Amino acid sequence: MLFSYFLSFLYFIIPIAIMLFIPYLTLLHISKNEKKREWVKRQFWLQPNFLSASRYPMGFVSILIYFFGEMSGHVWIKYFAIYWFSFWLVTDLLDGVIARKFELISEKGKILDPFSDKLMLFPALFYFAWYDDISMSWLLVFFVIDIIGQSSRYFIKNKSANLFGKAKTPMAAFVLFLVIVNDLDIIQITKLSPDLISVCLYATIVLALCSLIFKVIPTYWYANILSLLNMTCGIIGIYLILFYNKTELAFAACFIGQFLDLFDGRAAMKWGSTPKGAWFDTVGDAVNFGGTGSLLIYYSFQNKTIALILALIYLFATLFRLIRYTVNKSTTTYRTEEEKQNAALSFSGLPAPAGMLFIGSTALLALSTYTKIGLLIVASFLMISKIPFAHFGRLVLPNLSPIQTVVGLLLCFFITALSLLTKNTQWLYSFLLFALLIYFVYGFVFLHKYKKSN
């Protein structure tokens, strides 16, 4: 059975990955050569605005091809429609790369690109909603919010997409991926849960709403709102555990909060924040990582005495870690801006988001009681320790080669798809622990190289 899943991955996902990564790596290579850069700039068919405009009819064309495959009963036609759609969706990623790397950003492009996204995605989404594969009512809510967001570009000064807008498009594409997996019934795979598809659609709606809100509020509130959204994810996680015993969904909500937490620091550095912005961040992290995490630990043990002790140890470690970080950040003074930037490249003790991934994956994995106890104690100790850990977004990720990044993304996608298709989340939790180990190793290597070079 596992071989069947792997085979479906090969002929369903690999061609799409090739469409994306080969052109992406080629563009990165070309962008480093001045003569080749000038050649790209002279080709009209590689202009970002031309690519955006070319996508206008392709969403409708893809659905017509898919519908013809449905009516004729030839599954290969439906696969061709998927590949055709994927090719044009990939151009949405590539035109952004061309615009940034080859200095071809334009005000017109900031309007054309998101408009072409809508013309690509909504025909397919409405097609499957017509056949009740997704909720038509919630799709209409998403459509209205997204159209309002698109229309706002004609009245606001900042026309470029924000982080939520950029995340919304791949999330909507992921909803399509899940629906198509169910519709094609690849190698007689068990149908995915409709709840999973609905949750992903709700997440897309939230991202669209946040994208709209962030276009009109003052920029110095961006970081605080991200922190509040992170806290909201924590509240949702706590609610799911206490009232429904949905530990895996709670962990998923916490993971979304971690994604938001990844950007609130960047938002504060880029646009500033309010005087109490650092404490907004601390409270959000405490509720999400501390509150949800401690409940995950408590509900993962049958012996509630042990569970309570371990949950309180982790909760104390998280709160201690967050308060120490916030106080040090607010009281430490730096002589130069360069010294401040260098200090931001590492943490003293395991960061709270990484700690949450550590304990969440451990709590949900089918491990022996003693193994779980040992790993949870190690995670709590690492958080309150003063061992230096590299900042993932500022030090580890920028130092990865394109090949390492591509392999990592493919592995993430494969494990996630395997977990969804087999309905065995143990794959995913094991992978998260493995990914944390890789982060530890790469982080220490990059920190050592950085300190040695300075």
How would you characterize the overall build of this protein?
With 454 residues, this protein is mostly helical. 80% of the residues lie in helices and 1% in strands. It is built from 20 helices and 2 strands. The chain has helices at 2-12, 14-30, 34-42, 48-54, 58-72, 75-101, 107-130, 136-151, 163-184, 194-216, 222-244, 247-271, 277-298, 304-331, 337-343, 352-364, 369-384, 392-399, 402-422, 426-453; strands spanning 346-348, 388-390. The protein has a two-stranded antiparallel ribbon with strand order 1-2. Helix 5 (58-72) packs antiparallel against helix 6 (75-101) and helix 13 (277-298) runs antiparallel to helix 14. The protein is globular. The termini are far apart. The mean pLDDT is 84.
Terminal Cα span: 52 Å
* Rounded radius of gyration (Å): 23 Å
Q: Tell me the number of strands.
A: 2
Which strand order spans the largest sheet, edge to edge or round the barrel? 1-2
Estimate the mean pLDDT confidence: 84
The amount of beta strand, in percent, is under 5%
Structural class by SSE content = mainly alpha
List the secondary-structure elements in sequence, H or E.
HHHHHHHHHHHHHHHEHHEHHH
Oligomer: single chain
Query: Largest beta sheet, briefly?
Result: 2 strands, antiparallel
Shape: globular
Roughly what percent helix? over 70%
Please, how many helices?
A: 20
List segments where confidence is low: pLDDT < 50 over at least 5 consecutive residues: none
